[in-house]
Amino acid sequence: MCGRYVSTRSPEDLTRLFDITQWNPEQLVEPSWNVAPTDPVWAVLERPDRTSGVLERQLRALRWGLVPSWSKGPGGGPKMINARVETVHEKPAYRKAFARRRCLLPADGFYEWQPVPATAGAKAYKQPYFIRPEDGSVMAMAGLYEFWRDPAVADDEDPAAWWTTCTVITTEATDAAGRIHPRMPLTVAADDYETWLDPSHEDTHDLRALLAAPAEGRLDVRAVTTAVNSVRNNGPELLDDAPDAPPA
């Protein structure tokens, strides 16, 4: 799974990288070196303008952890941070979103963990590894988004009435990432952004063919400080090399 990631690029940078045409500057997401489930995250998606109907490429803040539109409540969101590519087009929670509500979730890289057994002088622990493209390019993680209407809020126009949530599509891990964890996020190449984001493109076979391993498998994997294990910790120091960590 992809349970934590790093996203530190500014909205101005993301607007340039993803050719964004609509972004509300009042909507902010702070840079994070420890993005966790239920956090607000930047997402790139395409929606028609309410007035003109023209399709716009938007940068929006979404809540990580998908809540299907038919859910009775939002409680399942934190459990639905990932959607498996093998079944994403079939599962009731994801199939409509996969057909019509796809997005990109920009990331610098992601974390995975490897259990380290106890020794005579130390307790067992989980060693985090930071996995990113070797060239430092942005990872456009493939995602889905959904709208959920909170029945407790009477006014449709109240922003609190609507939750917009997202999930990351994952696959079996390969290459360097596979030595750490059996799953990893899928990404979309820049040449395929337009097709992936187009809500009118509903051919699931074609859409699944657009998904690929991050950076075509050219990934840098290194052990980092165990401070990242706590969601309370955040900052660039979380990417410091871990001393005496086992090799990946």
Helices, strands, pairings?
Elements (H helix, E strand, L loop, with lengths): L4 E3 L3 H7 L4 E2 L8 E4 L4 E9 L6 E10 L17 E3 L10 H6 L1 E6 L1 E8 L8 E9 L5 E11 L12 E11 L2 H4 L4 E3 L1 E2 L4 H5 L6 H6 L1 E2 L6 E5 L25
Parallel strand pairs: 2-5, 5-11, 6-11
Antiparallel strand pairs: 1-3, 1-8, 4-5, 7-10, 8-9, 9-15, 10-11, 11-12, 13-14
Please explain how this structure is put together:
Pfam families: SRAP. By secondary structure, the protein is mostly beta strands. The protein has helices spanning 11-17, 95-100, 175-178, 193-197, 204-209, and strands spanning 5-7, 22-23, 32-35, 40-48, 55-64, 82-84, 102-107, 109-116, 125-133, 139-149, 162-172, 183-185, 187-188, 211-212, 219-223. Strands 2, 4, 5, 6, 7, 10, 11 and 12 form an 8-stranded mixed beta sheet that branches. The chain has a 5-stranded antiparallel beta sheet with strand order 3-1-8-9-15. The radius of gyration is 18 Å and the shape is globular. The two termini are 17 Å apart.
Instruction: Please tell me what the overall shape is.
Output: globular
The percent range for helix content is: 10-25%
> How confident is the prediction overall: mean pLDDT?
92
Number of strands: 15
Question: What gap, in angstroms, lies between the N and C termini?
Answer: 17 Å
Q: What would you call the structural class?
A: mainly beta
Task: Count every helix, treating DSSP H or I runs of 4 or more residues as helices.
Answer: 5
Runs in which pLDDT lies below 50 for 5 or more consecutive residues are none
The arrangement of helices and strands along the chain is EHEEEEEHEEEEEHEEHHEE
Strand content: 35-45%
Main beta sheet strand tally, sense and closure: 8 strands, mixed
Radius of gyration: 18 Å
Enzyme class: hydrolase
Family: Belongs to the SOS response-associated peptidase family.
GO molecular function, one term: lyase activity
Pfam families: SRAP
